[in-house]
Design goal:
Elements (H helix, E strand, L loop, with lengths): L1 H4 L1 H20 L6 H6 L13 E3 L2 E3 L1 E19 L14 E23 L2 E19 L1 H6 L21 E2 L3 E4 L1 E11 L9 E11 L45 E13 L2 E13 L4 H4 L16 E15 L4 E14 L2 E3 L4 H5 L4 H4 L2 E5 L5 E6 L5 E3 L2 E15 L2 E12 L2 E2 L6 E2 L19 E2 L5 H4 L5 E18 L1
Antiparallel strand pairs: 1-2, 3-4, 3-23, 4-5, 5-6, 5-7, 5-8, 8-9, 9-10, 10-11, 11-12, 12-13, 13-18, 14-17, 15-16, 18-19, 19-23, 20-23, 21-22
């Protein structure tokens, strides 16, 4: 698709920037003694680690507070079997369903505690103040079906999967807590001939109420057969029962980062590599409903890996008064693996009253076609296709005094198109126990995947996100003791 091809030059640009930053960071320093005296010993925030038991400074403590507003918007599409045969159907086999938007306001709290020279513990606690998600009807979807979305295009009377516009419940609360260790293996401020090399290890714990599919209380209930709004004895629409959808994914994750930087006069170039490995954690029942079954193909959230590169321009600083002004320009590319996840349609599909989703799926079928084994209910989670994210950051950092630092800026990220409902019907990695294993069902290889729902996972019925743009605004302040 053209949108996917357009990301290749940007991906190449990020790779070139990363290589250049790495080469510069490893290059030998040629700063004279006079130049070294002009520079502050501390690197910019990308590789800065606070100290303890240092000469003249036995203990360091940093307290962080910040606010972040993020907005992600994109178009949700549905696959069709007969591309180009009807109004509103895209030439590549997908038609627009709705415009998705996710807005989140977060208060970010944190603390750093110095343990030894260039070694520190840190903690982060993001408080979600407001989390809003909605899917609005798009133009082409309205032309095909004003109610949207039918199980089979053109099949009158089929129960609807969900209705547009769709508004999720407004969420708030504690999502995760992060604990970690950061250390500088090399520090240019201590040994000018070496770059600054930081290693970071973090554990993210989902501690808040686990997310469950939840629609906004203002959306009325509808008859699953006719789609007509339900009314009470007075003829007023019946609203859905209010629900607390939770704000935490309930997953835990281990994150590892390696960051490298080198200061050259008024510029500090840097690069970084990050890997994030999540697992179901407290939400294990959501990722593996009905327990551990051999047919499940994906029971873990997606793994993420990213490469970042950039430069912090330092037009002015005063070492004697601990003051500095810098402008941070950064590029970042991320790969997100296939996995089971809370997709943009998590609430809409999870609260669906369609029997094609509310009916459970069995672990297998016997020779007579009867259901056997455990029954698996649908809970809104779906297998999401692997995809990429590419973007950048522009930030301004001001070290106003020795004990105060401010940072504000913006992040822009493009998310490549990918399927949102891509659960395979069979798990080829599982082996049947004999030729008559009822869990094999109609699979020519492997076992039936009870998480598969034909109405959304079968080719020709799948949903996808046709690219999205994420935009963050943030402001942060740190008190440095």
């Amino acid at each position: 698709m053209s949108s996917a091809r357009s990301t290749q030059p940007r991906g190449l640009l990020v790779a070139v920037l990363g290589g250049a930053a790495l080469a510069l960071a490893l290059a030998p320093a040629r700063a004279s003694a006079q130049e070294e005296l002009r520079l502050m010993n501390e690197p910019t925030s990308f590789t800065d680690v606070i100290d303890a038991f240092d000469e003249g400074d036995a203990f360091d403590l940093n307290v962080h507070v910040g606010f972040r507003r993020s907005r992600v918007a994109g178009t949700i599409q549905r696959e069709v079997n007969d591309a180009g045969a009807a109004s509103g159907r895209a030439a590549d086999g997908f038609r627009d369903v709705g415009d998705w938007e996710h807005v989140r306001n977060v208060l970010e709290l944190g603390v750093d505690v110095g343990l030894f020279r260039d070694v520190a513990l840190f903690g982060r606690l993001p408080l979600v103040l407001r989390d809003e998600r909605e899917v609005l009807r798009s133009g082409s979807a309205a032309e095909v079906d004003p109610l949207l979305v039918e199980r089979t295009p053109g099949a009158a009377g089929d129960p609807q999967l969900f209705y547009l516009p769709y508004q999720s419940a407004t969420r708030s609360g504690v999502s995760t807590v992060e604990l970690g260790l950061a250390a500088n293996l090399f520090n240019q401020g201590r040994r000018p001939s070496f770059p600054t090399w930081m290693m970071l290890f973090a554990l993210e714990l989902g501690i808040g109420d686990i997310m469950t599919p939840c629609t906004d209380g203002g959306v009325v209930q509808r008859d699953p057969g006719t789609g007509e709004p339900l009314v009470d004895a007075m003829g007023d629409p019946v609203p859905n029962q209010d629900c607390d959808g939770g704000v935490s994914e309930g997953t835990h994750a281990f994150r590892f980062e390696s960051r490298l930087s080198r200061r050259y006069r008024h510029a500090e170039v840097y690069s970084g590599l990050m890997f994030r490995f999540p697992w179901a954690g407290r939400a294990e029942d959501a990722f593996s409903p009905a327990g551990s079954l051999a047919g499940y193909q994906n029971t873990r959230p997606p793994i993420r890996g990213s490469l970042s590169a950039g430069v912090a321009l330092v037009p002015w600083e005063n070492r004697e008064t601990w003051q500095r002004f810098s402008v941070d320009l950064r590029g970042k590319a991320t790969y997100v693996s296939e996995g089971r996840d809370y997709s943009p349609l998590f609430d809409a599909l999870g609260t669906s009253q369609s029997p094609y989703l509310t009916d459970t799926q069995p672990e297998g079928y016997d020779a007579s076609g009867n259901q056997v084994g455990r029954q698996v209910a649908f809970n809104g989670l779906t297998d999401v296709q692997a995809h990429g994210e590419i973007g950048g950051t522009l930030a301004v950092e001001m070290q106003a005094a020795r004990y105060v630092r401010f940072r504000f800026g913006a992040n822009v990220m493009y998310v490549t198109p990918h399927l949102l409902t891509a659960t395979d019907g069979c798990n080829p990695n599982a082996s049947p126990e004999g030729d008559d294993d009822p869990r094999a069902g109609s699979c020519t290889e492997g076992l039936l995947n009870p998480a598969h729902r034909p109405v959304i996972d079968t080719p020709g019925q799948r949903f996808r996100l046709d690219g999205a743009v994420s935009f963050d605004l943030f402001v942060q302040a740190a008190a440095q003791f």
